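User: Hello! My lab partner asked me to get a predicted holo structure for this protein. The small molecule is zinc ion, SMILES included with the sequence. Please write out the C-alpha cells.
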Amino acid sequence: MEGSWAAAAIEIGHVVVEPNGRTCACGVDGCAEAYASGPSIGRLAMALGRGEDARLGSLARAAWTGAAPTFPGSPLAARALAGDLLNAREVYQAYAAGDSLAVAVDAIAAEVLARAVLTGLVVLAPDTVVLGGGVIAGAPHLPARIAGLAPGRVYADAWKHCAFEAARLSHRAGLLGAALYGASLVLPRADLLALAAATLG
Ligand SMILES: [Zn+2]
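Assistant: Hello! Below are the C-alpha cells for the protein in complex with zinc ion.
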C-alpha cells in the first residue's frame, strides 16, 4: 500500500468475522484467524470435541441447527476427550473419512473464510482470489466452498466476475513473486511474460 505506515497490509486473516468470538493471537476477539488458521482449526476441534464453549456465536449455524451436538462415533472427538492435541492436518484427514466433528469444524472454517474473503471482494473487486497456505493444501475443496457461499453474501457482480482458486505455488509463491517483480524492473513486458510462463508452468 503506497504510503502506508506498515510494511504489510490487507491482513485479511484479522478481519473480525464474529464479534465477541474466539480470541486471536493479535489480541482481538473474533478474527478469521482465530477459527481458520492451522493451529486454530486444531484448537477448535479440541474445544468442540470436549464440549467446551468454543465462542462460535452465529458461526454455530454454519455447522448445525438447533442445539450444539455431541459427536458420537467420531474418532476425532474421542481423541479430543482423551486430551490429545489435534492439528489441522489431523482434522482434515478425519474429514476425508467423514468424521462428524471434522465435518462440523470444516463448515465453520468455510463460513469464516467466506466472511473474510467476501469482505475482500467488496473492497478490492478482484478477478481471482487465490487461497494458499497449509490449511488449503490439506483442504483443497475450500475455495469452491467459499465460492458457493458468495451468492447472497455479496452483490452479484462482485462474485460473478471472480474465480476462486487454490494456490499452485505453495511456499515458493513469495520467492517467485519477488523474483518476477525484480525482473519486471529490467525486462521488456514480452520477455517478462515468457519468463513468468517458463517459471510458473
Ligand atoms: Zn487477529
